[in-house]
Structures are given as structure tokens and as C-alpha cells.
């Protein structure tokens, strides 16, 4: 209900800006998310380097209805292309239809639309293959445990928001890797959500420790929760050398934690690269060039060895 | 309603009567016993006999608890405050921006490594300001508190996002971070609770608050400056939300625009579970504290029992409603008897 009220309060008063050389309308699922902010800035920075390309970025505030209105407003305003970071990946059919009826190219970024296989010619999806992230992460944990000579390893899994596709995929990736013979010595002993949040990650870890759960590695669906878990582990006086902690995202805070010797690994999703790719795809489509149905920006494993490279980024 | 309703509500009660918080306290004991039994049956260990668990039970809810204390007095006065979660986000961002160590990512590169008192004062002032605006809107424009604070909820969240264009702010100074480390949030909570308990129970501020909540017309007739007092009530609630924002940032060592989302609803739920009446005039800090502990016990209990994550929220919602029903039922029985 709160969301509805916000929508009503703010309305969707979108002004069609004067159409310049090339205008791209961008509807982001939500502004106050670290990762999506880096992605958004990646788009803005890239567009700034291009001559005569103007971005109009809107915040859908996690509201499906608002996002659709924004897209319709973009269409009404006569933009050359639209980039959508979907609020709900199941609600993209209507968006695709609206854009294709108007003949305006559409690019989905970061979150995979449900109709990705049925996208028309002038629509594309730019993201990283979610399958890679949890897989890279768990394989590295598996390798580190083997290196330590562990023969039986207990794993705790901290999941993101339960309704979120990335959380489900990453958790499934962990299970898939554990199902392979090379990593079958790992067992998941606990699996709970901390809603992507650092403080909830910390609280969850303390609750586990107080319940006497013992484990060799913590695999978290994102860095924030992993950092929270580390804060708890440290305040309980546990040595960070005895436990492997793995995150995903490669945020600046995570890199700092890794530099301090706490976080063991993360997986970098190139947010800015995705933003860059989305703008390029949108421009190509608006100029009538062909673009692959799916454009994948690869995930990259971040370890203490290649840490420096990522600290320079963002 | 008559003027008697504004007689100093709580202190005047004869001492021999059982405190109204007893009911909800029994619910809390009941929940603990259930977890204790389930603990022995399914986990083979004690639920309560673990000091680390006892401390996390309180620690994980102490930030929202501070908000709940402020919200309690707003609800007692017959109002509501929906803005506290957003005020947490806004104050966390601004306080952290003047509480950073010198890095190349500092928000204000020339304002780093300041003593902790600077971010604390800045945060508290922002909270106080937001609260005072809420109070002034409610008192002088006569718009319903639900709408006034809803406006602040949207505005403060927007401000938090705008402040750094959505970027998180991290790397606080050690002094600032200390506020959130270890059990410090619990001590801060207990201090706030103790002060507000005394204030509501034994001072003129408290008596006015109960009086306005029970019957604003009568309160006005007896010479209370209702408008000015309402501004004070909301300002105190804002101040405490600001404090919570400082605590949550110091605890997480980071400030993010989305921080505190939905805290207002948890805080209101804690107060209501603790026997604070949404129609105003009834409730206490002690009750809210018990409501808050019930929240903490439930969160820890679920993890302790290794309950599947998908079931937790559904059961939590049911327990909240059941706790209030149990409380109301006992209250009604007691009123009938007396």
C-alpha cells in the first residue's frame, strides 16, 4: 500500500524533453541500490562521451505500474530508444509490446526479462549471465578448501531477498557446484536469508554462532551480507584465517574488506560495463544495426591476488 | 469522555493493581517457553541459556527499539509517525558524510577525521528538524498525522537518495563507528528507554502527552498549549529516529539511502504489541520494550530452530497478530472483573 501511495503522491509527471539528436529514455527499477547506481552512472558517463546522445533517466521506485507509465511516456515523447532495468522480470511482456507497437528499439539491462527468447528484432538484453556468478564463487571456495586440505567441509549460505531471481539463481549455482564430484565434500548446513542487508547479515551470523553452528565457509549471495557476517565473526573473536567468506559484487567496501584480509573472494559483476553495453546496444538498434538477442558482459572472480585491478575501477 | 480522562493517567493508579504490561509480559514468557521446549526437542540445547543469543536478541532490535520509543509517545498522543524509517536513511547519510576518514572517496574531502561529536550532533539536529516539521504540520495545518508524516516519509527518503545520488557512504572514523560496535546500541537503547520512561511517567511533558491522546478538547480546556506540545512530541520522535540513523550507520560502518526502509512499521508494531493503543491515551515505554523483545526473540528463535526462511515471515506476521489478540483478551477480562 505504501508503494501505491508514493506513486499517487509523486504521480508520473514525466515531461517529454525536447528531442535532440539522439535521446534515450532510461527507466531504472530503483535508484537507491548501490549496484544499480554504478550501472546508471556507467550509462550516464558513457553517454556523456558520445556526441549528441542525451539520456533521460527515470526512477521506477520498484513499482511495475510506474515503470510501464514511464515507458509509455518515453514513447509519447518520441525518444529514439528505450533502456529498461525491469522492476519485475515477469512484467516485461507489456513493456516489449508497447515499444514494438511504437517501433522504438528497446534494451533490457541487468535483469533478464521473462520474454527474452521472444524479443522482436529491435529489442535486446544486456547483462551478465547470472549462472556464472554463483558458480565462479562456489568453485573458488571449493578450490580454497581443497588447498587447505579440508576433506569434509560445512558451508553456510546467506541468501538475498527470497523473491529475487538473482538470489534464487546464485543459491542454485552453489548447490549445482556442490553436486559435482570435485566439490561433493562440501555440505550445506545452514541456509537463510538476510535480504541483501549488511546488518541483517551480521545478525544472522550471530544467531548462527549462538546456536552453535560450526562451518568452514560462508557463501553469501552478495558482498554486503558477507561483510555483515565478517563483522559478527570478528566480534565473536573468531579468526578470519579459519573461515572462508565469499561474496558477490566486488563493491568498494568488499574490496577494502579483502585488502584487510577478511573477505576471501568476491565476484565482480561489471555494472558500469553493463551500463556502457546497454547504451551502445540502444544506439546500434536505433541506427538500424543488428544486435545479438543477448549481450553478455562476463563476471570476473576477485581474489586478493587481482584485487588492485578492481580497486582502481568504479 | 469527560475532563476526568485527563487526570494524570498512569501514576495515579492505585499501587495494588497489576500493571497493564503484565499481560504482554506473559505472552513474551510464553513465546520463550515454546522456543525453549522446541529447542530441547529439535536442537538438543537450551534456547535461553546462551548469553550470546540473549544479547543478539536485544542487539538486533535495539535500533528499531529507539525509534519505537519515539513512536510510542506519538501514538499515546493520538498521532502516528510513518516517517521514522526514512528519517533514519536521511540522517545516516548526512551524519556519515561528516564522519568519514580521509579517503579519495570521501563526500567532503576537507571535512574528514572530525571528532565523533560532529556527525552525532548533525544527525540529531536533522532528526529533530524533520520531527519538528512533522509536528508543526500536524498541529498547525490540522492535516491528519498519517498524511503529514507520509509526506515526510517520501521527502526524507528522496533527500537520502539525492544527497549522494544514490551512492553509499562508507569508512567512518573509529570514534563514530564505536557507537555501533559491540553492545553499545543496546546501552544506548536502554538509556533512551530509561529517560523516556521517567519523562512520560513523572513529568509534565508526559502528563500532557497522555492528556492530549485521551481527549484533546479537554486538554485544551485545562490550559494545555496543545499545538506547542504536539510539535514537541513529534520533534522528540524525530530526534530519536535521527539517533537510530546514527546507530545503524555506525553499526554497519556504512550509510545507504535505502537504510531504515520499513523500520517505521516494525516500530509501530512493537508499540502496539506492547499495549500502546492506536486510539491514543494508553500505553507505556515498558510495554513497547516488551513488544520489541518479542520481535527479537522471534527472529533469533526462528534461526535457532533452523526454520525454513520461506516460512519465517508468514509465521512472524501471525505471531504479531496473535500476541495482540491475547493481550486484548486479557485486558477485556480484567476490565469486566473490576
Give an overview of the whole structure.
The complex is a heterodimer of chains A (314) and B (338). The longest helix of chain A has 19 residues, at 130-148. Helices cover 44% and strands 18% of the residues of chain A. Chain A has two domains: 15-128 and 271-297, 3-Layer(aba) Sandwich (Rossmann fold), CATH 3.40.50.2300; 130-268, 3-Layer(aba) Sandwich (Rossmann fold), CATH 3.40.50.2300. Chain A is built from eleven helices and twelve strands. The two termini of chain A are 36 Å apart. Chain B is mainly alpha-helical. Helices cover 69% and strands 1% of the residues of chain B. Chain B has 13 helices and two strands; from the N terminus they run H-H-H-H-H-E-H-H-H-H-H-E-H-H-H. A two-stranded antiparallel sheet of chain B has the order 1-2. In chain B, helix 2 runs antiparallel to helix 12 and helix 8 crosses helix 10 (226-252). Residues 1-14 of chain B have low confidence and may be disordered. The interface between A and B is large, with 38 and 39 residues.
The gist of it:
By secondary structure, chain A is α/β, with parallel strands linked by helices. Chain A has helices at residues 2-10, 34-49, 64-76, 92-102, 130-148, 165-179, 198-210, 223-235, 252-259, 271-286, 307-311; strands spanning 22-28, 53-59, 81-84, 106-109, 123-127, 153-159, 186-193, 217-220, 244-246, 266-268, 294-296, 300-302.
What is the CATH class designation of chain B?
Answer: Mainly Alpha
In CATH, the architecture of the largest domain in chain A is: 3-Layer(aba) Sandwich
What separation lies between the terminal Cα atoms of chain A?
Answer: 36 Å
Strand order within the widest sheet of chain A?
2-1-3-4-5-11
Number of helices of chain B: 13
| General form of chain B | globular
Main β-sheet description of chain B? 2 strands, antiparallel
Summed up, the domain count of chain A is 2
Q: Output the CATH homologous superfamily of the largest domain in chain A.
A: Response regulator
CATH class of the largest domain in chain A: Alpha Beta
Main sheet: strand order of chain B: 1-2
Helix content bin of chain B: 55-70%
User: Biggest sheet of chain A, in brief?
Assistant: 6 strands, parallel
Rg of chain A, nearest Å: 21 Å
Structural class of chain B: mainly alpha
User: What is the subunit arrangement here?
Assistant: heterodimer
Of all protein chain pairs, which has the greatest interface, and how many residues does each chain bring to it? A-B, 38 and 39 residues
CATH topology of chain B: ABC transporter involved in vitamin B12 uptake, BtuC
What is the total domain count of chain B?
Answer: 1
Low-pLDDT ranges of chain A: 1-20
Amino acid at each position: 500500500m505504501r508503494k501505491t501511495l508514493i506513486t499517487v503522491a509523486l504521480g508520473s509527471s514525466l515531461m517529454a524533453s525536447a528531442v535532440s539528436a539522439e535521446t534515450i529514455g532510461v527507466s531504472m527499477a530503483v535508484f537507491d541500490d548501490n549496484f544499480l547506481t554504478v550501472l546508471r552512472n556507467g550509462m550516464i558517463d558513457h553517454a556523456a562521451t558520445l556526441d549528441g546522445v542525451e539520456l533521460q533517466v527515470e526512477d521506477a521506485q520498484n513499482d511495475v505500474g510506474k515503470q510501464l507509465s514511464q515507458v509509455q511516456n518515453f514513447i509519447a515523447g518520441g525518444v529514439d530508444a528505450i533502456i529498461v532495468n525491469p522492476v519485475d522480470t515477469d512484467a516485461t511482456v507489456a513493456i516489449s509490446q508497447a515499444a514494438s507497437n511504437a517501433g522504438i528499439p528497446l534494451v533490457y539491462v541487468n535483469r533478464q526479462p521473462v520474454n527474452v527468447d521472444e524479443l522482436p528484432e529491435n529489442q535486446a538484453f544486456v547483462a551478465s549471465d547470472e549462472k556464472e556468478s554463483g558458480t565462479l564463487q562456489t568453485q573458488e571456495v571449493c578450490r580454497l578448501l581443497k588447498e587447505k586440505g579440508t576433506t569434509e567441509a560445512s558451508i553456510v549460505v546467506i541468501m538475498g531477498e527470497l523473491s529475487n531471481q538473482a538470489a534464487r539463481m546464485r543459491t542454485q549455482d552453489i548447490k549445482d557446484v556442490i553436486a559435482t564430484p570435485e566439490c561433493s565434500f562440501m555440505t550445506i548446513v545452514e541456509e537463510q536469508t538476510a535480504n541483501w542487508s549488511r546488518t541483517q547479515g551480521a545478525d544472522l551470523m550471530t544467531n548462527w554462532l549462538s546456536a552453535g553452528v560450526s562451518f568452514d565457509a560462508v557463501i553469501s549471495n552478495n558482498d554486503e551480507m558477507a561483510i555483515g557476517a565478517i563483522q559478527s565473526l570478528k566480534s565473536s573473536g573468531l579468526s578470519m584465517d579459519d573461515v572462508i567468506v565469499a561474496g558477490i559484487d566486488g563493491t568498494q567496501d568488499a574490496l577494502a574488506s579483502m585488502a584487510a584480509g577478511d573477505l576471501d573472494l568476491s565476484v565482480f559483476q561489471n555494472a558500469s560495463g553493463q551500463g556502457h553495453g546497454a547504451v551502445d546496444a540502444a544506439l546500434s538498434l536505433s541506427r538500424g544495426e543488428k544486435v545479438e538477442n543477448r549481450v553478455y558482459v562476463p563476471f570476473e572472480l576477485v581474489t586478493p591476488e587481482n584485487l588492485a585491478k578492481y580497486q582502481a575501477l568504479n | 469522555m469527560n475532563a476526568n480522562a485527563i487526570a494524570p493517567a498512569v501514576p495515579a493508579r492505585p499501587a495494588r493493581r497489576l500493571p497493564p504490561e503484565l499481560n504482554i509480559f506473559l505472552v513474551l514468557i510464553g513465546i520463550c517457553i515454546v522456543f525453549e521446549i522446541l529447542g530441547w526437542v529439535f536442537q538438543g540445547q537450551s534456547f535461553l541459556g546462551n548469553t550470546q543469543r540473549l544479547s543478539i536478541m536485544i542487539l538486533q532490535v535495539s535500533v528499531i527499539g529507539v525509534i519505537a520509543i519515539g513512536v510510542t509517545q506519538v501514538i499515546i498522543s493520538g498521532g502516528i509517525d510513518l516517517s521514522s524509517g526514512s528519517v533514519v536513511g536521511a540522517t545516516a547519510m548526512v551524519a556519515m558524510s561528516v564522519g568519514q576518514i580521509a579517503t579519495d572517496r570521501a563526500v567532503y574531502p576537507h571535512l574528514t577525521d572530525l571528532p565523533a561529536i560532529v556527525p552525532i550532533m548533525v544527525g540529531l539536529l536533522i532528526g529533530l528538524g524533520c520531527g519538528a516539521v512533522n509536528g508543526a504540520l500536524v498541529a498547525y495545518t490540522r492535516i491528519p498525522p498519517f498524511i503529514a508524516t507520509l509526506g515526510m516519509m517520501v521527502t526524507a527518503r528522496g533527500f537520502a537518495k539525492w544527497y549522494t545520488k544514490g551512492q553509499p557512504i562508507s569508512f567512518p572514523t573509529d570514534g563514530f563507528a564505536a557507537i555501533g560496535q559491540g553492545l553499545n546500541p543496546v546501552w544506548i537503547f536502554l538509556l533512551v528507554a530509561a529517560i523516556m520512561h521517567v519523562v512520560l511517567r513523572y513529568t509534565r511533558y508526559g502528563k500532557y502527552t497522555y492528556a492530549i491522546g485521551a481527549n484533546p478538547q479537554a486538554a485544551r480546556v485545562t490550559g494545555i498549549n496543545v499545538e506547542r506540545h504536539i510539535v514537541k512530541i513529534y520533534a522528540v520522535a524525530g530526534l530519536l529516529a535521527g539517533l537510530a540513523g546514527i546507530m545503524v550507520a555506525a553499526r554497519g560502518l556504512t550509510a545507504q539511502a535505502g537504510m531504515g526502509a520499513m523500520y517505521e512499521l516494525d516500530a509501530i508494531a512493537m508499540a502496539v504489541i506492547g499495549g500502546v493503543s492506536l486510539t491514543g491515551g494508553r500505553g507505556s515505554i515498558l510495554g513497547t520494550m516488551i513488544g520489541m523483545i518479542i520481535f527479537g526473540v522471534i527472529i533469533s528463535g526462528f534461526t535457532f530452530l533452523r526454520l525454513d526462511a520461506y516460512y519465517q515471515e508468514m509465521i512472524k506476521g501471525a505471531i504479531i497478530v496473535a500476541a495482540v489478540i491475547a493481550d486484548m483478551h486479557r485486558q477485556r477480562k480484567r476490565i469486566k472483573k473490576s
